[in-house]
Amino acid sequence: MTKPIYFKAQNFIDSVVEDMKLGEVNSPTLYKIRQMIEERLAHRVMTTFMTYLGTKEMDVFAKLMEDHPEITEIDALIMMAPEIPGLKEGLEKNIDSLHKELTYDAQRVETALNAK
């Protein structure tokens, strides 16, 4: 297998929160914002994976799950990721796009709140 793909979700979430420029936010609200970002990130990653899985990859995935009941579906996908053509680039593009969407949305909210 080729080199594994590593991604630190918490670093992504930290970056988005910082770029949202939220100012002073209480802990429960910040927790909810971080949770929403994490959910959106998980959805975007899974959607990207599904886009790149063909019949061959689905067969490999099914075999991995059958042969290794101790691993999760996410673990199996991560193990397969380096072997899926274009996936790394697709993930990078879609995660970058999500970052832009989330920070743009925050800027729009700030603009609306400051409008008089």
SSE pattern, N- to C-terminal:
HHHHH
Radius of gyration: 18 Å
In percent, how helical is the residue content?
Answer: over 70%
What is the SS-derived class? mainly alpha
Tell me the total number of β-strands.
0
- Separation of termini? 58 Å
Molecular shape: elongated
Largest sheet: none
Overall average pLDDT: 84
Q: Give the percentage of residues in beta strands.
A: under 5%
**Low-confidence parts, pLDDT < 50 over ≥5 residues?**
1-5
Number of helices: 5
How does this structure look, described?
- This protein has helices at 9-20, 27-52, 55-67, 73-80, 87-114.
- The protein has 116 residues and is mainly alpha-helical.
- Helix 1 (9-20) runs parallel beside helix 5 (87-114).
- It starts with 8 loop residues before the first helix and ends with a helix.
- 6% of the residues are buried.
- Residues 1-5 have low confidence and may be disordered.
Task: For this entry, give a set of tags.
single chain; 116 residues; mainly alpha; disordered N terminus
Secondary structure elements and their pairing?
Blueprint: H1 9-20, H2 27-52, H3 55-67, H4 73-80, H5 87-114
Helix pairs in contact: 1-2, 1-5, 2-5, 3-4
